Amino acid sequence: MTLPSDDDERAALDLFQRALDAPSTDRLRFIDEARDVSPAVRARAAALAAADSASDDALLTGGAVARLVDITAPDRVGSYKVVRLIGAGGMGAVFLGRRDAGDFDQIVAIKVIRKGLLSDAVVERFERERTILASLTHPGVARLYDGGALPDGSPFMIMEFVDGSPVTTYADANSLTLAARVALVVKAAEAIGYAHRNLVVHRDVTPANVLVTRDGEVKVIDFGIARPYEDEPDADDAGARFDSLSHTPGFAAPERLAGARATTLVDIFSLGRLLEALTRRQGGGRELRAIIAKATRADPADRYQSTDDFIQDLQALTLGEPVDAYGGGVFYRFGKFVRRQRVLAGAAALAFLSLTGGLAATTALYQRAEEQRRAADTRFSEVRALASFMLFELYDDLEKVTGATASREKIASKARTYLDSLYKDERASRAVRLEAAVGDKRLADILGNPTIANLGRRDEFEPLLTRAIARLDELDAASPDDPAVLRALADAHFSRAIFEYIVKDSMVDAHEAAKQSAALYGRLAEDAGPASDERRLYIRASMLSGPPLIWDEKKAEGVAILRQARKDIIAYRAERPDDLKALRLHGSTLTELARALERADETPEDPDAEILEIWDEAVSARRE
């Protein structure tokens, strides 16, 4: 299939938007009678209009209420009472829910997928996606708390309710400047970039799915149709039919409309369309148009290859720095330099009157310096991408190959060098330093974490993990309460607790590390809620702090911690009964409690009976 050109795609989108002002029954006639565009553009606009009006093959997101579907509002879903309908579309409906379990008040959005729309195979895929999406913790991403199925079999998801307006509505209502509108797109791109780094593609980035709260905070919603991009369906797979619902006409990349697999580049395209929609009436000049054009190229290879590259050009636009997408040559870049350094430029103008001969030499030197800077920046980005690829994707692939231990060791060693250089580079942003610190922790686990397949280089584990924790502490001190940093610190302290307990046999240090990890997960769980992944990780770390006390002859204290962990995991499983990770943790907690009671030699009326009861519970959990 031949993909439409950029110009044809823009013209078709413009015609489609004009047709929306006509009654739905007259839109195709309006498009057919348009004589200011080519037949190809009319055909493309007609396809967009047809997709928009299809009741079963399009997904309306955000607050769309154009077509209600055959979903009867349930009285309640889990612990939440349904308050009212928020919106509906061809795929399902979204309801406002309020928790009424009595322990605390919480407002959520409950998305119900229409019964019978998804095959059994797609429902299974949908449930796997829900587990992955629940792990996304970023201030710009609306949280997914829980999910399941209604009694009639309709799948549902419980999500963070965002009390906000679509980004275009917010910008127009507040008469935002061009710079402020670009800043909103940057925040949305940062949230999408976080999802990409966690191997999730959104697939439907539109103004309706990028909301702005009254406080001006950007929240990207509706990740419920996203999928880890290494798990794309084949065209004839059941998942492909579900996947075909997950785009909005006008914002979907051409390859998506042609049926190709979705990658991170489809989100880049949609972000470009979002930028265009936000700034259409603001001017912005040739540089802004160049950014939009590059983001929305028909050929994915010609677009920005990452959200970081897209954001870098947007920030350059607002700071008056050279925009890579614009090109412009040496005089363009020199002009940008002059405008940024107005005082210096004034002095240079005076000098120019007497030193015109030196200008050519200065220009040549500036050009050389700029070329060297760009080359260095390119190398920096390449090293950053290479380190991440080697340490996560390539290493994991090689781990499955028999006899690849030597190659894995070489990769780990080279990745360690790259991570260190990235962190120390003066150009490293906060995000890059966080990636490097998380990479250090990941590398430490690869080298010697006893709970996973490791390289057996345990003498290297501790110094590398210590470095990771020190760097994360620096980032936390600079920006306290950053959820990404707190999560990374909690993970690192948990790895340290495991190492101290199993490898070093240092019970005091193991207990303290587990306590630190639990405290950090606990802070995250306060915001995320009782059914969040952070709550489960808090219980896991808290549970781990108990056994070291048993071995350190503080048996009563250790048993008390494990008894509380047992209560906590039972309560958590009531919130998420189908969560396999919670089920495994339940079994582990019961096992540790039974062992602790044996070692502690407690003397209730019938100690043996209690221990046997707990062992039976543990066996049941393992069997389940």
List key phrases describing it:
624 residues, alpha+beta, 6-stranded antiparallel β-sheet, 3-stranded antiparallel β-sheet, 60% helix
For the secondary structure, the number of strands is 11
Beta-strand content bin: 5-15%
How far from one another are the termini? 49 Å
| Largest β sheet strand count, sense and barrel closure | 6 strands, antiparallel
Instruction: Describe the strand arrangement of the main beta sheet, using strand numbers.
Output: 1-2-3-4-6-5
Global structural class? alpha+beta
Mean pLDDT score: 78
Morphology call: globular
The number of helices is: 24
What does this structure look like?
By secondary structure, the protein is of the alpha+beta class. The chain has 24 helices and eleven strands. The protein has a six-stranded antiparallel sheet with strand order 1-2-3-4-6-5, covered by helices on one side. A hairpin with a 5-residue loop joins β5 (144-149) and β6. α15 (405-424) runs antiparallel to α16. The radius of gyration is 28 Å and the shape is globular. Mean pLDDT is 78; it is low at 54-69 and 225-246.
